[in-house]
Amino acid sequence: MLRLAGHEISSGPILLDRYLNEAIEADVDCIADGTSVYVAGVMEHIEEAGIHSGDSACALPPYTLSPAIVTELKAQTEAMARELGIVGLMNVQYAIKDQEVFVLEVNPRASRTVPFVAKATGVPVAKIGARVMAGDKLSSFNLDDRAVVPHVAVKEAVFPFNRFAEVDIILGPEMRSTGEVMGLDTSFERAFAKSQLGAGVKLPESGTVFLSVRASDKPHLPALGRLLASMGFRILATRGTASRLRESGIEVELVNKVLEGRPHCVDAIRSGDVQMVINTAQGAQSVADSFDIRRSALVLGVPHYTTMAGARAAIHAIAAMREGPLDVAPLQSYFSGSF
């Protein structure tokens, strides 16, 4: 029985949970035969935990997780697969917060990430999983999960937002994507740029970037603002965002929010003066007030990001693109070492 201030509030089971704010999410796919375990791939999500895993872009191998954390993820996955007696494929979703690993869910089945892992590593994961389920042992496949992947693969989700009027593009715990694409290159930044092209997003290499972010994201602004300024981008921002950038010595032009009167930020987007939009919102009122920003960018085909993690990846990808053109090579060349 649970009592609060002397009053009974429940005589049944109580679930207590907490939200891991700004945690990094990771996916791990493995194959087990009941005794041996092969970790096929460890993927780091680009969007923070709280965004549905099917909607989040992810990188293989992880691009910010330390080797110690990756080793821990593999060890926990292997331990759970053995303890559960898994025969076939298993997927585990983790959250990493302050270097501590949390298990979000364990799925004793093939995950939607299996085709991505197979293409990124060159290992026929689904085929091996099926053969193990039919009685083969992992030892017969000459697998080595210590092998280092010499390239980076980035999976990006594809969304149907432009087919539905009045739909907001903000991502959350409900899956909304309808497809996936993959970018492959020798660095995370260039692989991410290719993934955006595959998803129909052409990142600008010059022009104006509009920023309007929630309070909790403002500490991340100076680093992104400096990189944008160093590449010659004009920065347009709403009052609070502009103030934070100016405090860091970054030149920025102030623009009104929609509620502050015209000319405002949506006018700038619709007139073609903005080449990329970074807009993060928190709370029902803030999300509602900034809807026109995101919808206008979507309708006009302006690249737009609603998480700071996605925006950071995009800006670094632009910097990489400006260093030289993106190379194109057959998928097989990445595994033969001839790229």
Describe the structure in your own words.
With 339 residues, this protein is of the alpha/beta class. It folds into two domains: 24-158, 2-Layer Sandwich (D-amino Acid Aminotransferase, Chain A, domain 1), CATH 3.30.470; 205-312, 3-Layer(aba) Sandwich (Rossmann fold). The chain is 32% helix and 23% strand. The chain has helices at residues 67-84, 114-121, 125-133, 188-198, 221-230, 239-247, 265-270, 284-289, 291-300, 308-322, 331-336; strands at 2-4, 7-10, 24-33, 37-45, 58-60, 87-97, 100-107, 152-158, 179-185, 208-212, 234-237, 253-254, 276-279, 304-305. Strands 7-6-3-4-5-8-9 form a seven-stranded antiparallel sheet, with helices on both faces. The chain has a five-stranded parallel sheet with strand order 12-11-10-13-14, sandwiched between helices. A hairpin with a 2-residue loop joins strand 1 and strand 2. Helix 4 packs across helix 10. The longest helix is centred in the first third of the chain and has 18 residues, at 67-84. The radius of gyration is 22 Å and the shape is globular. The N and C termini lie far apart (65 Å).
Summarize the structure.
By secondary structure, this protein is of the alpha/beta class. Helices cover 32% and strands 23% of the residues.
Enter the CATH topology name of the largest domain: D-amino Acid Aminotransferase, Chain A, domain 1
Portion of residues in helices?
A: 25-40%
Distance between the termini: 65 Å
| Major sheet description | 7 strands, antiparallel
**What form results from the Cα inertia axes?**
globular
Number of helical runs? 11
| Total beta strands | 14
Number of domains: 2
Strand order of the largest sheet: 7-6-3-4-5-8-9
CATH homolog superfamily of the largest domain? ATP-grasp fold, B domain
